Amino acid sequence: REAAELDASAGLVLEATSAALGDLARTHVGIFLGAGGFIMSAAINTMGSRGSRPPSVYAGTAVALSVASGRASYALGLTGPCLTLDTACSSSLVALHAASSALRNDECARAAATGVCVVIEETTRAFSAAGMLSARGRCHTFDWRADGYCRGEGVGAFVLEDDAGSVASRGTSVQQDGASASLTAPNGSSQRRLIASIDAPRTCLEAHGTGTALGD
After folding, report:
1. Is the dihedral of CA 20, 156, 68, 62 positive or negative?
2. Which residues does the UniProt record annotate as the domain Ketosynthase family 3 (KS3) (predicted)?
3. Is 112 exposed, middle or buried (0-12, 13-18, 19+ CB in 10 A)?
4. Tell me, what DSSP letter sits at residue 30?
5. What is the CATH number of the domain that holds 63?
6. CA distance 177 to 195
7. In whole angstroms, what is the distance from residue 82 CA to residue 65 CA?
8. Span 60-80, pLDDT tens digits
9. What is the domain range of residue 10?
10. Residue 81 domain flag
11. Which residue among 31, 85, 93, 161 is buried most deeply as judged by most CB within 10 Å?
């Protein structure tokens, strides 16, 4: 009965995290989930559209963003730190940063960094109204033709562990843009400081690439 109430993203988190851990010991393993609140919000909004059937006892926890990571800990027997992080497009990377930090601080023996994004109509409509999505249906990042991006969905999980004192990730850092042209506008100076703060060799860069004149 509970599975029928689950938001799609919550089920994907369980599948991906379980597959990533495989046969590894589950003792003192943390889970750090990156996911967007819009996913669960849409599920809550559709509760009232299921006819006259009242919500079940699982309805509240089935769509709660904070419970998505907790359900993985519960189902998989993970007793380490358990966090859900929502930082919009950077949620998965921030979850990876949190997992790496937890390992460095000896808060867990292993850490599962999981990210999920499910494309739903309500969110797509909102982003389109804000002018974020490409009318052509194609990303033209760093190109004069750029008019927005195209949405994609997926789920993935990494398992990090402290192997002989060396954490799998070479270095991570997180910070915010602070005051910029607008709430969603990037701050070049802030981003340069962030990159410079990482004490690890940088051989390539993977850009956010929003495909907009402002974002690029």
Report:
1. negative
2. 1-216
3. buried
4. E
5. 3.40.47.10
6. 13
7. 12
8. 777 778 888 999 999 999 999
9. 4-118+153-167
10. yes
11. 31
Model pLDDT for residues 12-27, shown as the tens digit of each residue: 999 999 999 999 888 8
Flag whether 16 is in a domain.
Answer: yes
Q: Which amino acid is at 23?
A: D
**For the chain, percent helix, then strand, then coil, each to nearest 5?**
40, 15, 45
Q: Residues 29, 78: contact at Cβ < 8 Å?
A: yes
> Which among 191, 196, 193 is positioned nearest to 208, based on CA atoms?
191
Residues 6 or more apart in contact with residue 143 via CB below 8 angstroms = 211
- In a domain? residue 14: yes
Q: Which tens digits make up the pLDDT trace of 49-61?
A: 555 566 677 777 7
> Hey, how many other C-beta atoms are within 10 angstroms of the C-beta on 135?
9
pLDDT in tens, 25-42: 888 999 999 997 665 555
CA 53 and chain centroid, separation: 32
Amino acid at residue number 157: A
Residue 30 near residue 107, CB atoms below 8 Å: yes
What global pTM score does this model have? 0.83
Domain count along the chain: 1
Residue corresponding to tokens 């907009």: 212
- Give the torsion through C-alpha atoms of 193, 198, 203, 209, to 10 deg: -50
